[in-house]
Amino acid sequence: MSSTLQITKETNDKASIATLKVAGRLDANTVSIMEKALTDSLAAGARALVLDMAELTYISSSGLRALLTAKRNTTQKKGDLYICALKRNVRDVFDMVGFSAVFHIHDTLGQAIQAANGLVGSLPPASVVE
Amino acid sequence: MSKIQRFTAPARFDQLQHIAALAVEAAKQVGFDATQQSRIELAIDEACSNIIEHAYAGEAGQIYIEVETEPNHYLRIVLSDTGRIFAPDQIPIYVPCTPATDVASLKVGGLGLHLMRQTMDDVCFEFNVPGHRGVFNRLTMIKRL
Q1: Which of A40, A66, A73, B16 has its CA 20 to 30 A from that of B133?
Q2: Residue A32 sits at the chain B interface (C-beta within 8 Å)
Q3: CATH number for position A81
């Protein structure tokens, strides 16, 4: 049995927002895939990251750490991280460590993108903040 | 009457899903609901990840898994390894975030241990336990229905 994590980058109207669809298991075995996708998105110019986790079936502390690092990296760029559509068991893990209190978690992808649009629309050009 | 099953798995991250599946199946046999099955899966994942990362620290090794199930009563998981000893009381105590938490300075040491203690009723570490493979580390986790 091999652990799997699939990450698909969705097309956005704004280059400063990266939307990633995350599916499968996010554990110590797969976290490097997640870390690379997040790092690549920021390196490509995104300042806000939207993570559609509707198909994420499992997360462990390794995954939580990767998300925390990504949130810190986005806030350094005056951006932020937006998460949506968590399954009940994944939300349970967020709740147990209090991440629900510090991450932007939305019920739907539309809500998360709207929130990211609201942030990015209020930001000065990247050249000013970086 | 309880049933005991024993497994051995290489101490590698690519074994986590397989080991977790064993725990979930055992949890079903006891009668835990889906929420508790997920929490038990998380506990054994965190425990095995710690063994792989800290006890064996990149070296080859085995994780010896014993699962005891008593339907309608409890699940007992015993994980043994022959890796390095660590001091649980030296692991930072993770404090769950609140809306007032400053993410920039948040310390996440002890996150895995916190999750194990949140999800299981008993979490007990023992070290230098004598056995037929020499001395080993033993972690016992119990979840009652």
Answers
A1: B16
A2: no
A3: 3.30.750.24
Q: How confident is the model at residue A130 (pLDDT cuts 50, 70, 90)?
A: very low
- The complex scores an ipTM of 0.93
- Residue in chain A lying closest to B105 (CA): A72
- Neighbour order of strands in the sheet with B134-144: B3-10, B62-70, B74-81, B134-144, B122-131
The predicted model scores a pTM of 0.92
Q: Within 10 Å of residue A73's Cβ, how many Cβ atoms?
A: 17
Biggest distance spanned by C-alpha atoms of chain B:
51
Rounded to a whole number, what is the distance in angstroms from the first to the last CA of chain B? 15
Q: Is A3 touching B (CB cutoff 8 A)?
A: yes
Low-confidence ranges of chain B (pLDDT < 70): none
Three-class secondary structure assignment of A58-118: EECHHHHHHHHHHHHHHHHCCCEEEEECCCHHHHHHHHHHCHHHCCEEECCHHHHHHHHHH
CATH 3.30.565.10 matches B3-144: yes
Contact residues, chain B, for A92 at CB < 8 Å: 35, 38-39
Q: Which among B16, B21, B35 is the nearest to A92, CB-wise?
A: B35
Residue A107 domain boundaries: 5-123
A128 occurs within a structural domain: no
User: What is the rounded distance in angstroms from the CA atom of residue A109 to the CA atom of residue B109?
Assistant: 31
